[in-house]
Amino acid sequence: xxxxxxxxxxxxxxxxxxxxxxxxxxxxxxxxxxxxxxxxxxxxxxxxxxxxxxxxxxxxxxxxxxxxxxxxxxxxxxxxxxxxxxxxxxxxxxxxxxxxxxxxxxxxxxxxxxxxxxxxxxxxxxxxxxxxxxxx
Length: 136
Known about the structure:
Nucleotidyltransferase, domain 5, 5 strands
């Protein structure tokens, strides 16, 4: 029975958690560093106007832009109601007559986003980079 006496005299065993916590913290720090270095920041490059742009005077022979408005009731070109096909023809004709002009699409806030994107895409096919989206 000496075996039983030993158990009574020995202190209870303890589980030391400090090495395990050290390992877990090291692994956590490793993943934080790796995730921050692998995360690529994606963005859109925007050319902001500088001080040189403010000193330049607008060219006097630049025509006013063609204004295309998209409302829940339909499409307006220069405040005249029209269909989508007629609006695209008017944009094409306006941009071909005026080489420095642009066409601007303004949308009512109540129009669905998909409709705005679709019409803007159609206008870009007609006018290329001389078509933009305007804000009210």
